[in-house]
């Protein structure tokens, strides 16, 4: 297997002025044109790192936050965040700048996956990305989490569909007078792939296919709203196979469901070469779900009419749209770890995103600059970080056991009582999978206060390479099956956990983090676990526990 790649990774910036030819009837940059630019820029970044031709494998959910108008400047920055042997994640950031006011706004932030295309029959193994900045390290760490979400998306979707079946959702009534038959929204378009639509290897540009999909989906949505729909988001473009110059591409679009002010349109793309065209043997190469809304002259959102599924397949797509919307809303709430008050509800539709948020929050916290040392002992360093009304603690402990043993011991929270006396009880509520568990924890009362209880998610991650840490991330979640009790004061953990780095075969550095707001400060009072016991003493107990248990292995 040949190893290829520029060690510094791909970093590409493209600037474009929006001309009338790029715009729609409102003078705004068309979403299809923007998708073409995004794909082209990201592909250049991928090829800069790989050193060979690359093809688009998928593009994650895309949200369009701002519209760019004629005369404004679009800047697209793309960078390879992480290489996974033969594929890589490319981060894409799109901003728009008004040349008159110099105001710059974010249009979209997206992530795409590209695959290196080998020359001949051999396979290519990509070089790791060289990390040059704190932001590089952060995105590199989170890329593996985003990959887990991509790989688990289909299972989450199928679980939601099964849940829908059990709840009897298919018995809905669609007898409203204004309900529109889905048949009326079906649109088909055929495109012949010409040389300008393809790269130098003759493969159709992924961005060109995305642009054609946006066009046919927009026409489908317009049959409901009697207006000009605006693309707001896309549920993952996934490329199942290639197409080449000379292929006929058939695009079929149909409205799957409407949600008051938005509509989901599903698009399926099939390819035919000359022989397949005659025999009607299609190759399914792409599918995506596009979400539109529409506004009146005053910029107010318009309401879409309900649709009326008429076949079993219509019903499947109708309820599939509901499941995707649940996932989309969960993603919107959870994917940004920088949100002040992210949702902590633990539901089937958002489990992957809550887990991502848990890992991402701890990773962001650990990567923050400006940690100040407040105390130093022989094997312990205590640092603090203040930002607004949020105070964070970092406790570094030098432990004489291998990192994998420390990870094993610290990841089992039922053992926490053996070194942390402020864990009164700890029981497992749900073993979601081998990397995720939900615990119910109680703490003894402090003077003048009720005893506290917590419902926490503990997410575990092992390193992909020696330089990366083991991670034990902790945050509070809400379970409807465990409501607050009058006997306890239900408390919340914003962000906490451990990062464990290997120093040698027999020693490691354990870093404990805890983030609290000013409202929780009376409980914590400069302590590791929110009790009257000092951080230093609790850290010493932790080291003693780890080294004692570790010596028995």
From TrEMBL:
Any Gene Ontology CC annotation: cytosol
Major localisation: cytoplasm
Pfam families (alphabetical): 4HBT, START
Parts forming coiled coils: none
Gene Ontology BP annotations: acetyl-CoA metabolic process; fatty acid metabolic process
Record-linked InterPro entries: Cytosol_ACT (IPR040170), HOTDOG_ACOT (IPR033120), HotDog_dom_sf (IPR029069), START-like_dom_sf (IPR023393), START_lipid-bd_dom (IPR002913), Thioestr_dom (IPR006683)
This protein's name: Acetyl-coenzyme A thioesterase
Lineage: Eukaryota, Metazoa, Chordata, Craniata, Vertebrata
Encoding gene per record: Acot12
């Amino acid at each position: 297997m040949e190893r290829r790649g520029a060690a510094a990774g791909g970093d590409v910036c493209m600037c474009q002025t929006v001309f009338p030819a790029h715009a729609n009837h409102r003078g705004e940059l068309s979403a299809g044109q923007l998708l073409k630019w995004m794909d082209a820029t990201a592909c250049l970044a991928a090829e800069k790192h790989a050193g060979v031709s690359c093809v688009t494998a998928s593009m994650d959910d895309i949200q369009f936050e701002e519209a760019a108008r004629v005369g404004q400047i679009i800047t697209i920055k793309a960078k390879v965040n992480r290489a996974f042997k033969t594929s890589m994640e490319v981060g894409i950031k799109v901003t728009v700048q008004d040349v008159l006011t110099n105001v710059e706004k974010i249009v979209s932030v997206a992530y795409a996956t590209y695959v290196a295309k080998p020359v001949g029959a051999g396979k290519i193994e990509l070089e790791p990305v060289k990390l040059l900045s704190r932001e590089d390290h952060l995105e590199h760490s989170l890329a593996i989490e985003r990959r887990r979400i991509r790989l688990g998306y289909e299972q989450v979707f199928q679980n939601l569909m099964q849940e829908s079946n059990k709840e009897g959702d298919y018995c809905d009534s669609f007898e409203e007078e204004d309900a529109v038959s889905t048949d009326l929204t079906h649109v088909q378009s055929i495109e012949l792939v010409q040389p300008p639509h393809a790269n130098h290897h003759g493969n159709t540009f992924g961005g060109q296919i995305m642009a054609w999909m946006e066009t046919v989906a927009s026409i489908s949505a317009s049959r409901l709203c009697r207006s000009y729909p605006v693309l707001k988001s896309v549920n993952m473009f996934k490329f199942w196979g290639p197409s080449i110059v000379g292929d006929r591409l058939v695009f079929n679009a149909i409205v799957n469901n409407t949600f008051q002010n938005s509509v989901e349109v599903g698009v399926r793309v099939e390819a035919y070469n000359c022989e397949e065209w005659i025999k009607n043997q299609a190759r399914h190469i792409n599918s995506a779900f596009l979400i539109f809304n529409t506004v009146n002259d005053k910029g107010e959102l318009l309401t879409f009419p309900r649709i009326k599924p008429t076949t079993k397949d219509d019903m499947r797509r109708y309820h599939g749209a509901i499941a995707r919307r649940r996932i989309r809303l969960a993603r919107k709430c959870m994917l940004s770890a920088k949100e002040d008050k992210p949702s902590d509800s633990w539901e089937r539709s958002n489990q992957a995103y809550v887990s991502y948020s848990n890992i991402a929050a701890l990773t962001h916290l650990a990567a923050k600059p400006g940690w100040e040392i407040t105390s130093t002992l022989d094997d312990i360093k205590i640092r603090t970080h203040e930002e607004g009304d949020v105070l964070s603690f970092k406790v570094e402990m030098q432990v004489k056991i291998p990192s994998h043993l420390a990870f094993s011991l610290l990841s089992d929270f039922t053992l926490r009582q053996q070194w942390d006396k402020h864990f009164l009880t700890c029981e497992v509520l749900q073993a979601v999978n081998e990397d995720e568990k939900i615990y119910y924890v109680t703490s003894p009362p402090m003077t003048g206060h009720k005893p506290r209880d917590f419902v926490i998610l503990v997410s575990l991650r092992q390193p992909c390479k020696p330089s990366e840490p083991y991670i034990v991330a902790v945050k509070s979640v809400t379970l409807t099956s465990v409501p607050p009790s009058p006997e306890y004061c239900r408390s919340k953990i914003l962000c906490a956990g451990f990062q464990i780095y290997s120093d040698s075969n027999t020693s490691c550095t354990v870093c404990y983090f805890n983030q609290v707001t000013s409202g929780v400060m009376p409980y914590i009072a400069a302590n590791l676990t929110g009790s009257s016991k000092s951080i230093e003493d609790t850290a010493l107990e932790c080291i003693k526990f780890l080294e004692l248990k570790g010596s028995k292995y």
